[in-house]
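PROTEIN DESIGN WORKSHEET
SECTION A - STRUCTURE
LENGTH: 135
TOKENS:
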């Protein structure tokens, strides 16, 4: 019953259920869409050599932004920072989420000092992408 005493109708229950279901579907599919965008971004851009100069691992809260975030459990973001010349020196980074801090550190440290190829936006050389398959 509502505050005014009128009962909730079947239509209102169905409408509410549909809205809640749509919100849940968007939340579930968010990581899938983000991964698809990340996988296709920059794949047709030309490549240049880059060196991974710095690596870092940071703790992120369990706020539901990552698929690894479960309730209030933290996850770990490993970041590779690289530099490349095109034509001037530029910098970019690539991150990956981990449930375990040791795994994040091992992954990041395995690339420190490595030469990789990055895809550079031909219309803006300050924009680049280090794709997972190029690691």
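SECTION B - SEQUENCE
RESIDUE ASSIGNMENT:
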């Amino acid at each position: 019953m509502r505050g005014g005493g009128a009962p909730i109708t079947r239509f209102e229950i169905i409408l509410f259920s549909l809205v809640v279901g749509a919100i849940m579907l968007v939340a579930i599919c968010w990581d899938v869409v983000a991964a698809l965008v990340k996988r296709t971004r920059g794949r047709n851009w030309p490549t240049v050599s880059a060196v991974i100069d710095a690596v870092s691992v940071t703790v992120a809260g369990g706020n539901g932004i990552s698929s690894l975030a479960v309730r209030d459990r933290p996850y770990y973001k490993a970041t590779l920072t690289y530099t490349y010349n095109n034509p001037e020196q530029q910098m970019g980074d690539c991150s990956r989420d981990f449930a375990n801090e040791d795994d994040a550190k091992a992954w990041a440290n395995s690339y420190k000092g490595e030469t990789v190829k990055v895809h550079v936006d031909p219309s803006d050389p300050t924009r680049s992408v280090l794709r997972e398959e190029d690691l």
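SECTION C - NOTES
The first strand starts at residue 47 and ends at 60.
DSSP finds two helices and five strands in the chain.
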